[in-house]
Amino acid sequence: RMVAAVLAGLSLLSLLTCGYLAWGSRRGGAGEAPGNLLGEEPAAGAPRSQPHIIFILADDQGFRDVGYHGSEIRTPTLDKLAAEGVKLENYYVQPMCTPSRSQLITGKYQIHTGLQHSIIRPTQPNCLPLDNVTLPQKLKEVGYSTHMVGKWHLGFYRRECMPTQRGFDSFFGSLLGSGDYYTHFKCDSPGICGYDLYENDNAAWDHDNGIYSTQMYTQKVQQILASHDPRKPIFLYIAYQAVHSPLQAPGRYFEHYRSINNINRRRYAAMLACLDEAIHNVTLALRKYGYYENSIIIYSSDNGGQPMAGGSNWPLRGSKGTYWEGGIRAVGFVHSPLLKNKGSVCKELVHITDWFPTLITLAEGQIDEDIQLDGYDVWETISEGRRSPRVDILHNIDPIYTKAKNGSWAAGYGIWNTAIQSAIRVNHWKLLTGNPGYSDWVPPQAFSNAGPNRWHNERVSWSAGKTVWLFNITADPYERVDLSARHPDVVKQLLRRLSQFNRTAVPVRYPPKDPRSNPKLNGGVWGPWFKEDDKKKKPDKSKGANKQKKSKNKKKAN
C-alpha cells in the first residue's frame, strides 16, 4: 500500500510538473492569453521585481496636440493615462526623428555618437555607430525579452545596423523615416522607390494587406503580449509612424473633425484619434494578459509638431526641426501602478537621454563604468517628486548646419563662434546661437482656413546681425523676451559650457548617398546593401589598376 501511495504521489507530481511546463511553453494567438485565460495577475509569491517596460514613441506630435494641453483633438486615452500617472511638463527631446531615437536608445547626446547633423537618409551608408551599447542590449543582459514594433530610423545600410542586431529579439516595422501608411512604399527621390515593411531581417510581403500601419502595429503588439509569459520581464518599444506625414487616416476617424476647415489639420486630427484608440487597445491587452500591475508605460513624442503638416505647438515658439521650444519640448508622461505619486505633475528637468539609465536601473541592470552617459536616473524624480539630478541639457551643436551669415567669434566674446547652430539649457537659462530655424508662434487661428495660412502667425522681426539669444525659460517658456543684451555675464557662462561640451564631440557622420542603396538593386525593397565582400574586392581592383599603370610607365620608359 505504501509503495502504491508513493507511486500515485509521484504520478500526480509528474502531471502537475508537465502541466506547469506546458503552460510556460504555450504560445497563444492574438486575443488569447497564454495559460492565464482570465487575465488575472500572477500570484503574490511569483517573482515580479523586474517591471515590464512599454515605451510608446509618437512621431511629430505637437506640444498642444493632446487633450490635457487644450487641444480641440480628442485624446481620451492619453488624457486618462496621464491623469492617473505623472505628466512630464519640463520634458525635452530632440527636434527631429533620428536624433531623438539615437539618444533614447544610447543615453548619449548626438555629439557623442556623430549623429549631430540632420537625420539618417535612406540612401546614406550610415547608422547608429556599432560601438554604442543599446538599451535593449542592456535589458537582455538581465533576462528581458525585447521586442520592437514600428519605425526604426537609425540606419540599415549593413546587416549589423538592423534592429535585431542591436538588441531586439524581434522587429516588425519600417526602417525609414516615413512612408505610405497603407502600401508601405517610400520614394526618396524620383525613381528611387521601394517597399519598407520588415519582419525581423526580411521584407514582410505576407503582411502587405493594405492595413493602416497604426492598426497593424497595434495588432502585432497584441500578438506579442498574447504569446509571452507575463511572469518574465518584457521590454516593448512601440514606435508608431503616426502622426508623421503623409497625412492619411481611415475614414471613420474623420467623423468628429469635419468642422475643421484646414484639410491638413483635419487629417492630422483623424490620425491622432486613431493613435489614441490604438494606445487604448495596447493598455487593454496589458490588462488582459496579466502584465499591467507590474508594468511601466512611458509615452513620448519624438519632436515638436510641423504646422504645415497639421501639427500645433501653441503657445510655444517654432516647430519641428528647430531649437525653439516648439521643436524640442514634448508631450510626455509615465503611467504605472508602481508610481508612488500618481496623479501628479513633474516640472523637474527631464530629457530623452534619461530613459536609458532610468530603465536599466529599474530592470536591475548594470551600467558599465566605461560608458560615458549623458542621461540621468530620474525615476525618483518622476515617482516620488524629488529634485531632478539634471541641471543642464545640451540641445545640440551642429558644426555643418548652414552658418549664420553675421555670426562671429567676436559676437561670442571670443569664447564661441556664433555662426554655428547650437542650443543649451542650464537651470532656468537657455542660450541659442547661429540659425535656430523657423521661429514664428503659430496660434490655433492659423488652422481656421481651408489652406495653410500664415496671416495669423506672430512674425518675428529679426534685428540685423543677431546670432545670440538668451531666455529665462522658467519665467518665459514662450521665448518672447530675449535677455542676451541685459545679461552678458550669463551669456558668457553658457558659451563656456557650450565650448566644454564641444571639446568632447566626435566627428560628424554624414556621408554622401550611395547609388547601391537603390531598392531596384535589392528586389524593390529598402534594406541593407553594403557587404563586406565589397570592401575586399576594392583593394584587388586598385592593385590591378596599379599593375597596369606600372606596365604603361615601363613601356613609356622603354
Blueprint of the fold:
Elements: H1 2-25, E1 52-58, H2 76-84, E2 86-88, E3 91-92, H3 97-106, H4 135-141, E4 145-151, E5 170-174, E6 185-189, E7 192-195, E8 198-199, E9 202-203, H5 213-227, E10 234-239, H6 263-288, E11 295-301, H7 325-328, E12 332-335, E13 344-346, E14 350-351, H8 355-362, H9 379-384, E15 392-398, E16 421-426, E17 429-433, E18 468-472, H10 488-502, H11 532-557
Parallel strand pairs: 1-10, 1-11, 2-13, 3-14, 4-5, 4-10
Antiparallel strand pairs: 2-12, 5-8, 6-7, 8-9, 11-12, 15-16, 16-17, 17-18
Helix pairs in contact: 5-6
Note down, in words, how this protein is organized.
The strands form four sheets. Strands 9-8-5-4-10-1-11-12-2-13 form a ten-stranded mixed β-sheet, with helices on both faces. It is α/β, with parallel strands linked by helices and 558 residues long. The longest helix has 26 residues, at 263-288. It has helices at 2-25, 76-84, 97-106, 135-141, 213-227, 263-288, 325-328, 355-362, 379-384, 488-502, 532-557, and strands at 52-58, 86-88, 91-92, 145-151, 170-174, 185-189, 192-195, 198-199, 202-203, 234-239, 295-301, 332-335, 344-346, 350-351, 392-398, 421-426, 429-433, 468-472. It has two domains: 49-390 and 507-537, Alkaline Phosphatase, subunit A, CATH 3.40.720; 391-506, 2-Layer Sandwich (Arylsulfatase, C-terminal domain), CATH 3.30.1120. 27% of the residues lie in helices and 15% in strands. The model is unreliable at 1-47 and 538-558 (pLDDT under 50). It has eleven helices and 18 strands. Residues 530-543 have a biased composition (Basic and acidic residues). Keywords: Calcium, Glycoprotein, Hydrolase, Metal-binding, Signal. This is ARSJ Arylsulfatase. Residues 51-363 form the Sulfatase N-terminal domain. Residues 506-558 are annotated as: Disordered.
